[in-house]
Amino acid sequence: MPGKEYQCKDCGRAFLVYEEEKRGPKCPSCEGGNVARKEAQPLPEWLLQLKNKTGSS
Ligand SMILES: [Zn+2]
């Protein structure tokens, strides 16, 4: 199971958290607690098409 993606609101650093912490995750860059959960997004369609093209050779 992949980690949950968070992003720091202070410095913009995105990072993964694999374990739930009671106090919530901290930014590994600035160690700030002002982080927000990023929504899991599916791969964009242009990227899927790119993969299909490159994978068929
Ligand atoms: Zn930060």
Structure description:
- The protein has one helix and three strands, in the order βββα.
- By secondary structure, it is an alpha+beta fold.
- The chain has a three-stranded antiparallel beta sheet with strand order 2-1-3, with no helix packed on it.
- The radius of gyration is 15 Å and the shape is elongated.
- The mean pLDDT is 85.
- The site of zinc ion (ZN) has 8 residues, from loops.
Helix-strand string: EEEH
Distance between the termini: 31 Å
Percentage of residues assigned to helices: 10-25%
Q: How many strand units?
A: 3
The kinds of small molecule bound in this structure are: zinc ion
Q: How much strand content do the residues show?
A: 15-25%
What class, by secondary structure content? alpha+beta
> Assembly state here?
single chain
Broad CATH class of the domain at 1-39? Mainly Beta
What's the architecture of the domain at 1-39, going by CATH?
A: Single Sheet
Please give the radius of gyration in angstroms. 15 Å
- Tally the helices: 1
Shape: elongated
* CATH-defined fold name of the domain at 1-39: Rubrerythrin, domain 2
The biggest sheet, with number of strands, parallel, antiparallel or mixed sense and barrel status, is: 3 strands, antiparallel
Low-confidence stretches: none
Mean of residue pLDDT values: 85
Order of strands in the sheet with the most strands? 2-1-3
